Amino acid sequence: MDVEKLEGNLEIGHDAKRQKLAYTGVLPICQSDIRDVIHSGYYADKTEYVWRLIKRNGPVFLVRPRRFGKTLLIDTIDKIAQGEEYRHLFSDCFIETGTIKLNPDDPNEIPQKYVPLDKKWPKYPVIKLDFSGLSNTSSESVILSLEDKLIRIAENYNVSITGRTWQTKFESLVQNMKKLDRLGYEKKIILLIDEYDSPIAKLKSNIDKLYQEYKIKEDSQSKPQVIIDAEILYKKNKDILEGFLSVVKSYSGSCQLILLTGVYKFSLSELGSGANIFHPGNVSLHTQYAGVVGYTKEHIETIFTRYPFIKNRIENCYKRAFNLPDHPNSCDNIGVMDHMQAYYNGYKFHADGEAMYNPSSVLSCFDSGEIKGYWKDTADTTILTDQMEANIERFSIKNIKESLLQTESDLLSTKDLKKLDIIPLMYQTGYLTIKSYDFETQKYTLDFPNQEVKQALYEHFEKHLTNQERTYGIAESLNVQSAFKEEDWQKLFSIFRSNCYAKASYELTEKSEKYFHGLLFMFLNGVFLDNGNVEIAVETISNIGQMDIVIKDKSNHTIYILELKLNKDACTGLKQILDRDYYGQYINEYNKIVCVGLNIRFNDDNKNDPDPSHRNIDACSLLIRRRDHNNNWENDLIKKFTYSPVSNSFSVSELSKEETEEIYQRKSRNSKQG
C-alpha cells in the first residue's frame, strides 16, 4: 500500500477507511483496546497468532506474566471475530496481507490467506469475560457480577436470556447466540475468558496472610472466625468458577475458540473436571505461540523508524546518564538498543522462541526516555511475595543468581498453592525465564530475563525477603564480618544476641528452631549482602542430614557451619555437626572449617518472660579445624561460651577433657555403627 508522510512522521494510507487511522503517536500505556493501540502507531502485529488461534477450533490455555499484553490479545481476537466491522483496522497487518500454513511441518500444505481479498471476513458471536472484574467480596457478588456480564453481552447482540441461575443464563445465551447465523454470523461462537485466576488467587492470597498474621498452621483445630470466613468464601467462589468451567466444557463443541488466559497455572488444577479441556490446548510453552504477546527487537526498531523523536529522547537521557559528549556520533541506535535489550529483553517462552521485551516497560521507557526499571511498579506479584513471607528460608537472592533446571511439568506446576515451589512461581510471574533446553535430560535452564527484573527482585521484594532482620544485619555488617575474620567469637555472639534476637518482636516469636534460625539467616543475609565472595545457604542437605546455616567465605578459604538448638545445652548443636560429619564434604575445598553450635533459651511457661536470656542465645560451643603448614588438618580446643546477664557478655571456657572425649567418642561410635 502506498503511503504518504505527514507532518510529525505520521503515516497514512490512501484507502478510504485506512485514512481514519492516522497515527496519533499517543503512547498506549496500560491500553487494552486494540483500536487505540493501532491508532497510536505502537502496535506489535500479533494477528498471525490470532489467525492460528481461531483456526485451532478448540479450547486454548495461555499463561503469561502480567503487563505482557494478554488482555490486548483478547480484544484483538474480539475485534477480528466481528468480521468486516473492524477489518479496516488490520489492513496493514499480517492477517490481511500474509499467508500461513496451519501445519508448518507439512510439506504438502499450501500457505493460505485468512480469507481471499474479495471475500468478507467471517463474523462470530463473541462472549468476552474479564474475571478480574468479578466482585469477589461474597459468593453472591460473584454470581451477580457474572450474571451482569452475561446480560450485557446478550443486550449487545440483541438476544434474550432466560433462567433462574447463572448456569441456565449462560446456557440460554449460548443457545440464542448460535441462532444468530440467520443474521450472517458463523454458527459457532468464540468464548474469551481473561485472567481466569484473578478472583480465587487473590482470595487464597488473603488466607495466606491471615495465617501469617495469626501465626497458626493450616491444619490447626482452633482458627479465628476471620480465617474460617475467608476459607468458606474461597471455597464458595472456587465452586462457582468450577461450575462455570463445567458448563463451558459441555458447550465446547459449540465454540470455534475458547481462550483462557492467566498468570498462574496452579489454580486450573483446583477447578475440577471442567478445566480438563484446557490441558491439551495449553500453548504456554508451544513453539508456535512463543511470541504471541510482547515486543520483539524488530518491533522496537520499527517504532524508532516511525517516531525518531522517541529514539532521540532515549539517546539524550542515555548521554546524560553516562556523561557522554553531546556529539551526533556519540550514541547511536545500536548503543540504545543494546542498553534497552539488557534492561527489558530476554523473556523466552520456548527454548527456540525469540527473546521478547516486556511491552509495558518499553512503553514507559519511550514515555520518560529513561532506561530504568518500571517492572516493580506495574507487576502484581502478590502471591509470590506471600510465598516468600511465609517461607523466607526457601529463598535466597544469591541462590537464585545461578541458572536453575526445571522440567516442563515443574515449570508449569499445578500443585496446590500452599506447596507451590518458588522457582515455578517465579517463572510464571516473569521473574525467571527460559534460557535453554536439554533434550537429553528434558530440562529447561532458567535465569533472570534481564536487568530490570533482577533489580526489581532486589528492590521490590527486599522487605519480604529480609524483613527487619536484614536491616539489622546491614547495620552491623562491618562489625560482624570483622568478628568472623578476627575470630572474635564473644563479640560475634553478643551481636547475635543484641542486634538479631533481642530486637525480634515478642508478639511474633514462635517456639521453634526453624523460626530462630530463620531470623539468624535473614540477619546474616543482611550482613553479607554486598559481599560477593560470601555465599549463605539455609537448611543445606548432605547425605546424612540437613545443616541449619552454611556460610562459605571463598576469599578467606573458610566455611562456617551453624547448628541451632532450642532449650538444649551449649554442645548439642556442635555434637550434631560432628556426629553427622557435616563438614566432611568441604575438607578438600577450604583451609579452615568453623563448626558452631548455638542454643536458644525459651521459657515455655511465659512467652513474654522479661528475662533477657529468654528468646535468645544463652550458650554456644565452637570447634575450628585448620590446615597447618604441611597441609594437615589440626583441631583447636573446643570452646564453650556462656552468657552472663550480670556482665551482659559471654564468658569463654575450654571444654574439660571428659567433655571433649565424650563428644569425640560419640562421633567415633556413630562412625563405627555407620
Task: Give the number of domains.
Answer: 4
How confident is the prediction overall: mean pLDDT? Answer: 83
The percentage helix is 25-40%
> Can you summarize the main beta sheet?
8 strands, mixed
User: Into which percentage range does the β-strand content fall?
Assistant: 15-25%
What's the total helix number? 24
The rounded Rg comes to 31 Å
Give the overall shape, derived from the CA principal axes: elongated
Would you count the extended β strands for me? 17
> What are the segments in which pLDDT stays under 50 over at least 5 consecutive residues?
1-20, 505-509, 669-674
N-to-C terminal Cα separation, in Å?
81 Å
- Helix-strand category: alpha+beta
How would you describe this structure to a colleague?
The chain has 674 residues and is an alpha+beta fold. It folds into 4 domains: 23-284, no CATH class; 297-372, no CATH class; 378-458, no CATH class; 468-673, no CATH class. Strands 10, 11, 12, 13, 14, 15, 16 and 17 form an 8-stranded mixed sheet that branches. A 4-stranded parallel sheet has the order 3-6-5-4. A 3-stranded antiparallel sheet has the order 7-9-8. Helix 7 (198-214) runs antiparallel to helix 8 (225-250) and helix 10 crosses helix 12 (359-368). The longest helix is centred in the middle third of the chain and has 26 residues, at 225-250. The termini are far apart. The relative contact order is 0.07.
